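Dock zinc ion; give full complex structure.
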Amino acid sequence: MKVVRIPAGIYAANCYLVYSENDNKEGIVIDPGGDVDDITAQIENLGLSIKYIILTHGHGDHIAGINELKKYVDVPVAIHKDDEYLLKNGDENLSSMMPMGTVELSADILLDDGDEIAFGDITAKIIHTPGHTPGGISIKIGNNLFTGDTLFAGSIGRTDFPGSSFEKIMSSIKDKLLIYPDDTIVYPGHGPSSTIKREKASNPFLK
Ligand SMILES: [Zn+2]
Ligand SMILES: [Zn+2]
């Protein structure tokens, strides 16, 4: 399994390509937040066969590139069912207040906690981690955890948005993410990667 990080869009949301090195290089795109030319160039250079676009949550900075990306890879878009309302409404997903303008779309797949999505020889497990948004998810693939705007290296997601909850994000992180082994790699929605060990030891929000 390989991971490529592409900071995308004006808020530098991390778009990730995750793909199998076997089985025709099948892969997924996580959170295409803009800079679609960069994303498609990587897909082309690596010769990937993209199967799904999976969204960690419905905020504008993570979804802004989808409509353009779908012209290049027309694959199903998956989001947790509790964030579907964000995708459909530019005011709710905050894109109407962002410089790139309103982004609205419909999901093809509504996810639930525990769902699995398979591509190539890889299985992605969906972990519902609400708090930053009601339907925020983390995506567990082997030893890797894609945490969206729930857990960052040295920080946690904002909870001052409508629908956010500080209590929920804290229990999501403690009960559903920090339970994984120390060497689990954390790939957040913004900024550099980390590990569960490092976040447990040094994230000021988790002491
Ligand atoms: Zn967000
Ligand atoms: Zn974000």
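Observed: The mean pLDDT is 97.
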